[in-house]
Amino acid sequence: MSQPFHRSPLRRLLATLLLCLATLSLSVQAQQPAPQVMIPSPPQLAASSWILMDANSGEVLAEHNADERLPPASLTKLMTAYLVERELDRGNIGMDDQVTISEHAWRTGGSKMFVEVDTQVSIQDLLYGIIIQSGNDASVAVAEHLAGGERPFADLMNQHATRLGMHNTNFVNPTGLPDANHYSSARDMATLSRHIIDDYPEHYAIYAERYFTYNDIRQPNRNRLLWRDSSVDGLKTGHTDEAGYCLVASAERDGMRLISVVMGTASEEARAQETQKLLSYGFRYYETLEVYDEGETIATPRIWGGAADELRLGVDRALWATVPRARNAELNARLSLPESINAPVAAGETLGTLQVMLGEEVVAERPLVALEPVEQGGLFKRLLDAIRQFISGFFS
Q1: 77 a catalytic residue
Q2: 77-89 and 186-199 are packed helices; what angle lies between their axes, rounded to 10 degrees?
């Protein structure tokens, strides 16, 4: 009976040591860094310039000479179509409005919709002819209808290019026919494409149409990826001898939308293949997450002297972040707020900054705004809050 008694402390000691070692092992394992996510360098393309951009976050995933000023050829028609869509959205024109085709529009060279001089063509048909058939005649017709001619329409195009932040773009016509002062860049075309997708989504489906028939002439969309990749639903091709073969494409997979721009390739097939390389790279190695929704409460700081004691802060539109796949769990938010907030506060007023961090890297940033107004409180409430604020400041 005495033997087990003498062994019992040894057994307890051994068990304790084993438990400590196990705990130490778990602690060491917990401190091990997360496995590193391996992402290869972006593909190198047989093109003069290119860019790959996430449509929701605006994050650039790959680029080469993206700000170089190059002839955009018929990529120009993205802006021509955008201005038509803008006028439709504002109610200044309607899809059924009729446009008289001038001899100048009819005679315009290059790719055609095959409108006939002195005929009446609807805005809807002209918009389809611009986007799907890349009709230079249709582009000139809408320029004359909306602005009185190509030159004043080009001036309008440039004003909107400036408004959208297209810093390396200058248009002299609505078609993209060669001119030494007519140029754009891959980044600017990606920026414009984001606005086409976001600003007027009700018209974006046109860009995915494979064929359009007008005047008994059926023409295909020149974007070959519409036949090869079901996730591709836009946007526009372009070609001149000066520009080479260009393609702006957009694709959506599992809620992630990418925009690629490839300029200056050697053939129709090359621009399609090089675009596929970019899109495959982006979808394979990155993902885009909606971090905060529009109107979602992110912070509720104290507000002094108001009818309420707390102020709801959030973002005025959805905030997205594009990160390497398998690293979304590492995202965290960093808020920068004023030391004190005093009523009154108007809805939409900027009151701080939100940064979404991936480690030490800022991957998204947006102003924090008041989600609701807070009026001044009554006299007694303001006096009481003034005393509380003083005491709080004194002790802090």
Answers
A1: yes
A2: 20
**Longest C-alpha distance within the chain, in Å?**
118
> β-pairing, 341-342 with 303-304?
parallel
Q: What does the pLDDT look like over 211-268, one tens digit per residue? A: 999 999 999 999 999 999 999 999 999 999 999 999 999 999 999 999 999 999 999 9
Measured N-to-C along each axis, helices 150-163 and 136-147 cross at an angle, to the nearest 10 degrees, of: 90
For residue 312, what are its two tokens? 């709801």
The verdict on whether omega for the bond into residue 344 sits within 30 degrees of 0, i.e. cis, is: yes
Classify 68 as helix, strand or coil: coil
Reported pTM: 0.86
CA 261/CA 78 separation, integer angstroms: 12
Amino acid at 16: T
pLDDT, tens digit, 9 for 90 and up, residues 9-20:
433 433 343 334
Ramachandran quadrant class, 144 (left: phi over 0; alpha: psi -120 to 50; beta: rest): alpha
**Residue 392, phi-psi category: left (phi > 0), alpha (psi -120 to 50), beta (remainder):** alpha
Catalytic residue of the set 57, 74, 102, 184: 74
Determine whether 74 is an active site residue.
yes
**From 57, 77, 102, 250, active-site residue:** 77
pLDDT (tens digit per residue) in 56-65: 999 999 999 9
Q: Report the distance separating Cα 33 and Cα 30, nearest Å.
A: 8
Q: Which of 102, 111, 134, 260 is catalytic?
A: 134
Task: Count other Cβ atoms within 10 Å, centred on residue 255.
Answer: 10
- Spatial separation of the C-alpha atoms in residues 93 and 305, rounded to whole Å: 49
